[in-house]
Amino acid sequence: MALDDVERCDEVHVHSGVVLKIHKEMPDDDKLYDLAELFKVFGDSTRIRILFALFEEEMCVCDIADSLNMTQSAISHQLRILKQSRLVGNRREGKQVIYYLADDHVRTIIDQGISHIEE
Amino acid sequence: MALDDVERCDEVHVHSGVVLKIHKEMPDDDKLYDLAELFKVFGDSTRIRILFALFEEEMCVCDIADSLNMTQSAISHQLRILKQSRLVGNRREGKQVIYYLADDHVRTIIDQGISHIEE
DNA sequence: CAAACATATGAATGTTTGTTCATATGTTCA
DNA sequence: TGAACATATGAACAAACATTCATATGTTTG
Fold first, then answer.
1. Scanning every residue of chain A, which has its alpha carbon at the shortest distance from the alpha carbon of B42?
2. Which CATH number applies to B14-118: 2.102.10.10, 3.50.80.10, 1.10.10.10, 1.10.8.100?
3. Considering only Cβ atoms within 10 Å of each terminal Cβ, which end of chain B, N or C, has fewer?
């Protein structure tokens, strides 16, 4: 589909200078996709609860499932998603796998979210 | 379902002190739900693109649709979601409705997201 | 090596969600 | 007031998703 296949409002209302600037500042599709994917990960309360749990300290899967009162399987599936987006890391310790927060962005993003909803 | 209906790992692995602390620090369900709902809003590339457009300047619905090369209806549906979560505001100016960013959290959250994916 | 434990994963299922299409609401202007 | 324009919205549909269940993989220990 070409760029101009879609309806337009009157020329009066479209300021082509701005439209150009928007195109210029807009990240490319890959980056927009990655960004949306990242925020999607925060968009589930189970995953947010996992992150809050890991704010306290690193933990094995079973401890997380226990703290959140959910099944091991459900938690494991969600940890996979959190790990794919590099929000958490893990390491094996014997039979267990220990998960931990990957970096500080997690906390900053969640804190900003909280201050938004608390306004 | 009671709190202890779910499987547990060996007592050795559950540090009840930590579990208690997690329960203490964990926001209540309403807040977790609201937080997840908020991030869900960021979890769609169309909505992110709308926010990027509004970073440049406030705009009417038609200009946004135009800049993003999408239908008025699709944009309008998404603006409704953005407005519900108070990320954007709007005002009517004659036939048009002008949308604008509600506050700075939007920018901070997106910037943190970008720095995470760029790491 | 076998049993027990901890975690991961594939398939199935019900739910949520983004877009489209048709149409309704609201505003201006002739 | 009626036609034209701008926006909003409900219904429908396909795609994405979270949990469950069954089972596989990996690790320790007797």
1. A39
2. 1.10.10.10
3. N
Instruction: Select from A5, A6, A116 the Cβ nearest to the Cβ of B105.
Output: A116
Name the minimum distance, in Å, from the CA of B22 to any CA of chain A. 6
The domain locations on chain A are 14-118
pLDDT band at A23, cuts 50/70/90?
A: confident
Using alpha carbons, list the distances in angstroms from residue A15 to A19, A21, A68, B58, B107: 6, 10, 51, 12, 23
Rounded to an integer, the average pLDDT of B71-83 is 98
Q: What is the pTM of this model?
A: 0.89
Q: For position A3, what pLDDT does the model report?
A: 35
- Interatomic separation, CA of residue B13 and C1' of nucleotide C3, rounded (Å): 20
What are the pLDDT digits (tens) for A51-68? 999 999 999 999 999 999
Q: Which nucleotides of C are covered by protein (CB under 7 A)?
A: 5-11, 17-23, 26-29
Give Cβ neighbours of residue A91 (< 8 Å, ≥ 6 apart).
A97, A98
